[in-house]
Amino acid sequence: MDKKIYTLLTIYIVYLVIALSMVLSTGAQKVLTALIFGGVGIGIFLIAFFIWMLNRKHEG
Fold first, then answer.
1. Keywords assigned by UniProt (predicted)?
2. How far is 49 from 43, CA to CA, in rounded Å?
3. Domain that holds residue 22
4. Distance (Å, rounded) from C-alpha 1 to C-alpha 7?
5. Number of domains present in the structure of the chain
6. pLDDT tens digits, one per residue of 24-54
């Protein structure tokens, strides 16, 4: 049970630091927004690429 509480506290602290930096700093807003959208874009590309590769293996 203690490990779950520490995990939740860690997640909350990370969230709090990110939220405060987004509110207090425009530079952090730009960096974090770029990381979020860049990461989502790369993730979508990788998922589509792996689906394409899997379909290609099944066809051949």
1. Membrane, Transmembrane, Transmembrane helix
2. 10
3. 3-59
4. 10
5. 1
6. 989 988 988 898 899 999 999 999 999 999 9
